[in-house]
Design goal:
By secondary structure, the chain is an alpha/beta fold. It has a single domain, classed as Alpha-Beta Barrel (TIM Barrel). It has 16 helices and nine strands. It has a seven-stranded parallel sheet with strand order 1-4-5-6-7-8-9. α9 packs across α10, α9 crosses α11 and α11 runs parallel beside α12. The two termini are 18 Å apart. 48% of the residues are buried. The model has no long low-confidence stretch (mean pLDDT 97). The structure holds coproporphyrinogen III (CP3).
Amino acid sequence: MSDHRFLRALRRQPVDRTPVWIMRQAGRYLPEYRATRARAGSFVALCKTPELACEVTLQPLARFPLDAAILFSDILTIPDAMGLGLSVEEKVGPRFARTVRTRAEIAKLGVPDPEADLRYVMDAVRLIRRELHDKVPLIGFAGSPWTLACYMIEGEGSSSFAKAKALALDDAATMHRLLGVVARSVAAYLAAQAAAGAQALMVFDTWGGLLAPDMFRDFSLRYLAQIAQSLQGDKAAKNIPLILFSKGANAHLEALADTGCAALGLDWTISLGAARTRVGDRVALQGNLDPAVLHASSDAIRSEAKRVLADFGPHPGHVFNLGHGITPDVDPERLGLLVDAVHALSARSI
Ligand code: CP3
C-alpha cells in the first residue's frame, strides 16, 4: 500500500503515471450523492452516520479510476464538537447556532476528545479503510485554525470575514487564545484520524489568502506550523504525509514549505513550474487545474490537463487535482474525461 502512486508522489518518488484525486470528489455533482444525502435527511446527519459517510466516500471511486479516497466529512466538525451547533442548508451553506466573539466565550472552549466527541468521524475512517480493501489510500483532513476561527466568529460563510479580522486587530491576545485551542484540537483530531487508518492528512486553509502578509504569518502560518510539528511528534501521524492547502496564499509558498509538511496544495493562480522553482524539491505539489475548465469542451479539458502536467514537468512529486473543489453543476462525465486524460498524458516507465 505504501507503494501506491499517490503516496509515492507525496514522497517525491517516481511513479508510473501522475496520481489524481479531486477536491469535493464526493458531492452534489453526483446524483447518487444527492440520493444518499436525502436518505440521511441532512448534510450534517450524513456526516454523523459512518455507514452513509462511507457510502458517499466510495461513490466517486466506483465511477472513476481515482488514485485516492478522501474521508467524507466537513472541516466544521471540530467547532460543532466544541458546542457551536452546526447546520448546513442548501443555498445557505454552513451556519452555527452559537458564535464565539468575546474573551469569556473563547475561554470556555475546550479541546474535543476525538474518540469521544468526534467518534463518528473515527468510526467512518475505520469503516472506509475496511471497505477500500487497500485499493487506494484514504486521506483524512481538517480545517486550519484561521479558517475555522473565521466561521466560529462569523457564524456563517462570508466573502471578507471582517469580524474575524477585526478581532485579530483589536484584541490579538484573545484571537491567539482562540487559534491556540483550535490548533490543539486540529492536531489531536488529525492524529486520531491517522491512528484510525488515514494514510495522508490534509489541512484546508481556505481563507488564509484573505490575510495581509503580516497577518497571514501571525494568525495562519504560525498555527499551520504548530500542527505540522505536533504531528511529527505523534506516534501514529509522524510517518503520514501532510498536505497544506492555503488558498490564495501564493505569496507564502516558501514559508509554507518550511513548516515540515510533505506537500503544498495550490490554486490555479500560479503555474506549478513557478511554484516548483520557488520551493525546489523540499515538498511535493498538488493541483492545480481551474475548476471552471470542467465546463469547457472535451478538447479544452484535455489541453488544460496537458498544460498543468507540462507546467510541473518530468519530475517526481506531483499529485494532480483541481485548484479548489469541483462545483455542483459539473457533468460527472467531464470529470471522467479529465481523470482518463491525466492518466493517459502522464504515463511513463519507471
Ligand atoms: O472533498 C471531499 O469530497 C470530502 C468532503 C469535504 C466536504 N467539505 C463536504 C461538503 C471536504 C474536504 C470539505 C472541506 C470544507 N468544508 C472546506 C475546505 C475546502 C474548501 O472547499 O475550501 C470548507 C471551507 C468547508 C465549509 C463548508 N462546508 C462550506 C463552505 C460548505 C458549503 C459548500 C457549498 O458549496 O455550498 C459546506 C458543506 C459541504 N461540505 C458540502 C459538501 C459535499 C455541500 C453541502 C451539501 O451536500 O448539502
